[in-house]
Amino acid sequence: MIPIGVVRTARTDLEHTPVQAGANRAEEGMIELEPRYAEGLAGLTGFDYAWLLSLLDRPDRPGTLTQVPYLLRREGRRMGIFATRGPRRPNPIGLSLIRLLDVEGATIRFAGVDLLDGTPVLDVKPYVTRFDRPPGEPACGWFDAVDVEDGTTPADLSDESGGRRR
After folding, report:
1. In a 3-state reduction of DSSP, which class is residue 94?
2. What is the pTM of this model?
């Protein structure tokens, strides 16, 4: 796979970057596609949301098959990597559901920042409710028991965060 562009955000440090786009819905960023891919954005303006697939090229340390997810740092509970949304994966592909604000030329302005500035973009796919939203209330495993406030970063979840519980 080759990157088709990069993400532009104000975030430069993994520890202070929100853990998920859905936990940081207001912050805005940009996707700058390589000009040769601009034509591929035709029709995207009719969508409110899109899936952003990225290459998580700066994990803070190599991953193992079981890890303590950011959201379980205080408990120290380990989970299998495929039961987490963390960046330290065998294939570090990021998945972010972003709100599309504007598409112009080879640039997408979006809300829902959870990536570092300069993160390579692998793909953008429109969110289609009837295909992407499962029926009913799907179980989300251990995530169902964790409360995540907007803007939560890994630093907020460490013991050194001054006792802020998220």
Report:
1. strand
2. 0.86
